[in-house]
Design a protein that fits this description.
Blueprint (H helix, E strand, L loop, with lengths): L12 H9 L4 H10 L4 H8 L3 H13 L3 E4 L2 E4 L1 H4 L2 H14 L6 E5 L11 E2 L4 E2 L5 E5 L9 H6 L3 E2 L7
Antiparallel strand pairs: 1-2, 3-6, 4-5, 6-7
């Protein structure tokens, strides 16, 4: 039996969420948007994704209200920013259960403390919003040489646009 294209028969909030973010590449696009990737060409080179797939995924994310298109840039909407705990938790899950080293380390920019797996700042005792985070290269970061990877090696504020 062929795999269906949607979860229409499912009566479940998770199934509805998967309609938006459950396809291959989609959460990686969202991840890169958090990291400051904004331009189609930068998503394309950093993800090494087929052009047609990227175009379709970006369009679907815009239609779902996760991304907004501003001139030539794609930016996370408020709904898109609310996906940060999901993206962060999945990455931490891989570190814990798939023997993956952290590719990125996230520090609370206000105090310099690394946030925990739950997104909390131990020093401040509160959850940290994405715009309050600074991204640093982690020990598991591969040394890719595409222009986006080179820019992302340097510490920078989450959501701030990168320029290659």
């Amino acid at each position: 039996m062929a795999l269906g294209k949607d979860y229409a028969a499912q009566d479940c909030s998770l199934a509805r969420a998967l309609e938006v973010v459950g396809e291959r590449w989609t959460l990686l696009i969202v991840r890169d948007a958090f990291y400051g990737v904004r331009r189609f060409s930068d998503f394309l080179v950093h993800l090494d994704i087929p052009r047609a797939v990227l175009s379709a995924r970006l369009q679907a994310l815009v239609e779902a209200g996760v991304l907004a298109k501003d001139d030539h840039d794609y930016v996370l909407t408020e709904a898109g920013r609310e996906l940060w705990p999901v993206v962060h938790t999945l990455a931490r899950w891989a570190e814990d259960h798939l023997s993956a080293e952290a590719c990125r380390v996230f520090l609370h920019a206000g105090c310099g403390t690394r946030i925990g797996p739950d997104g909390m700042c131990a020093a401040c005792g509160r959850p940290v919003r994405p715009e309050e985070l600074e991204i640093h290269a982690g020990p598991g970061l591969r040394r890719r040489t595409d222009p986006v990877s080179l820019v992302l090696r340097s510490p920078h504020r989450m959501l701030d646009p990168i320029r290659t």
